[in-house]
Amino acid sequence: xxxxxxxxxxxxxxxxxxxxxxxxxxxxxxxxxxxxxxxxxxxxxxxxxxxxxxxxxxxxxxxxxxxxxxxxxxxxxxxxxxxxxxxxxxxxxxxxxxxxxx
Length: 102
Prior knowledge:
Strand content: 35-45%
Radius of gyration: 17 Å
CATH class of the domain at 28-97: Alpha Beta
């Protein structure tokens, strides 16, 4: 008979941290139109140190959502680790501000 209790994930002893990032480009047509604001992205850092399950929580424009998602796919992380040094999946949430310069 299978154990109905779900397996517990070990608690991380270190959080995920960014190792390598690329700043999302501001699409020139949106800057020219004055479209600005903050894109909030929620995602997981997998045990291999890559962003996955990227979700856009809020965004002023779909094109800004696309550039943030594409940028996050290129980021590299030190994953969260358990007491044995094993990489763990962890959740992150980051804002990306797009400001029209004068």
